[in-house]
Amino acid sequence: xxxxxxxxxxxxxxxxxxxxxxxxxxxxxxxxxxxxxxxxxxxxxxxxxxxxxxxxxxxxxxxxxxxxxxxxxxxxxxxxxxxxxxxxxxxxxxxxxxxxxxxxxxxxxxxxxxxxxxxxxxxxxxxxxxxxxxxxxxxxxxxxxxxxxxxxxxxxxxxxxxxxxxxxxxxxxxxxxxxxxxxxxxxxxxxxxxxxxxxxxxxxxxxxxxxxxxxxxxxxxxxxxxxxxxxxxxxxxxxxxxxxxxxxxxxxxxxxxxxxxxxxxxxxxxxxxxxxxxxxxxxxxxxxxxxxxxx
Length: 295
Prior knowledge:
Blueprint: E1 2-12, E2 15-20, E3 23-29, H1 32-36, E4 45-50, E5 56-61, E6 67-68, E7 73-74, E8 78-84, H2 92-105, E9 108-114, H3 122-130, E10 134-137, H4 146-153, E11 157-161, H5 168-175, H6 183-189, E12 201-204, E13 210-213, H7 219-225, H8 241-244, H9 261-267, H10 273-287
Parallel strand pairs: 3-5, 8-9, 8-11, 9-10, 11-13
Antiparallel strand pairs: 1-2, 1-4, 2-3, 4-5, 6-7, 12-13
Helix pairs in contact: 2-7, 2-10
């Protein structure tokens, strides 16, 4: 019996597949996880014991730096948010809300504006780069920007979000053809053909790091399931950060208060109107919620 540490690549059908320095092991979890109400997630760092038969037992989940409810994945370094420049038109309120959720979770947002062959993303690139984000122009059709994206994700655990029609799957297929496979094929790639339920899967990349395949995941999932408390929300807009401490009142919500440094910065063109509008909408919603609803 040996004790090993590794990363959970996928959990499905009661089995957990853990990558260690000695290979990938199929594991069953101890009953203590069910009793504690804990669920091991793809991306978790875990400790396992492996018997002489090569079968493992998941013993413990090491502390997480973050996790998402849907997709169920842990320890992300970045969330790649794919938005089309055209067909469909960019939905900036949805994008800004996703960015805020990622910031709240301690996950670095990387913005990818796809279909640069159909419409120029320059205005969008300028808007979000000015706000302090990594923003890339990509065309899944021509391959433009794909290698730059790949280099930027090297060594990181990255999941991808994007609603229907924006080209997320096409970009993923260019980055790693395994991410476009159907469930049965994915099972074969990981060395098991007996499970067919879709779940989050980590795929190791040649340059280091992992891409996370999150079947059926859309921005709407995170919008519905991840909420930000009103006291935390201003800090989830990084372009607000230089001004928050300069407001006249420490209780300022940055909506319409006198002496608000954030609103003054917006009036001076230092914060994009679209970003401020999304913040206001999110803050009004957050203020209408009771604390117990966020638990």
